[in-house]
Amino acid sequence: MSANPMSVVRIVDDDEDVRNSLKFLLEAEGWKTQVYANADEFLEKDNAMIPGCLILDIRMPGTSGLMLQNRLIEAEYALPIIFITAFAEVGTAVMALRRGALDFLTKPINDERLLESVETAVSNDWKRRSSIEHSKKAHELVSLLTVRELDVARLVAEGLSNKQIAVNLGIAETTVKVHRTSIYRKLEVKTPLEIFKLLER
């Protein structure tokens, strides 16, 4: 993917030269950036609603990169993280990756590798946010159903016929047909498979 103008690449590093270097590289490729000198500044000022990713230094005075990662996990702030460090610490890298970091790069950073990681991270963040929005939409649509319609919808999703649903619920087949029509309209779907997917969300 090319640089997404709706995304922001956050850079958190206590080294001003590193911040400026990364900012220059990314903006030259069309990315919007936001730089922070430390983790606390990031936590205070960053807008979690804006998609993107986080380039994060491991070793910083005060709150370290790993500590910030833990705080973001606790806050359920799932911004993809690309760790950078001047030290090749295998144990630290493994720990960071196990906790969900996308990549772990050693300084001096390979520009091409970093740009590839940023593209992947931002793409992943957009997909995650899109999935969340679809889930919210699904819950909103399902909430429009009455209790009886929800009962019918679950059986429709299982592939049962109107007659089978009527027997299962102890209601008339014509009533099932009425409910079924209402369900399709409210859920904005056309097939039992679509109903199944909505209920699964």
CATH architecture of the largest domain: 3-Layer(aba) Sandwich
How many structural domains does the protein architecture include?
2
Rounded mean pLDDT score: 91
Structural class: alpha/beta
The counted number of beta strands is 5
Overall morphology = elongated
CATH C-level name of the largest domain? Alpha Beta
Strand order of the largest sheet: 2-1-3-4-5
Under CATH, the topology of the largest domain can be stated as: Rossmann fold
Succession of helices and strands: EHEHEHEHEHHHHH
Q: Over all CA atoms, what is the radius of gyration? A: 24 Å
Number of helices: 9
Share in helix: 55-70%
* Binned strand content: 5-15%
Please summarize the sheet with the most strands: 5 strands, parallel
Spatial gap, N to C terminus: 28 Å
What is the CATH superfamily label of the largest domain? Answer: Response regulator
Low-confidence stretches: none
Description:
There is one protein chain. The chain has 201 residues and is of the alpha/beta class. It folds into two domains: 8-131, Rossmann fold; 144-200, Orthogonal Bundle (Arc Repressor Mutant, subunit A), CATH 1.10.10.10. The protein contains nine helices and five strands. β1, α1 (16-28) and β2 (32-36) form a beta-alpha-beta unit. α6 packs across α8 (173-187) and α7 (162-169) packs across α8. The longest helix has 32 residues, at 111-142. The two termini are 28 Å apart. The model has no long low-confidence stretch (mean pLDDT 91).
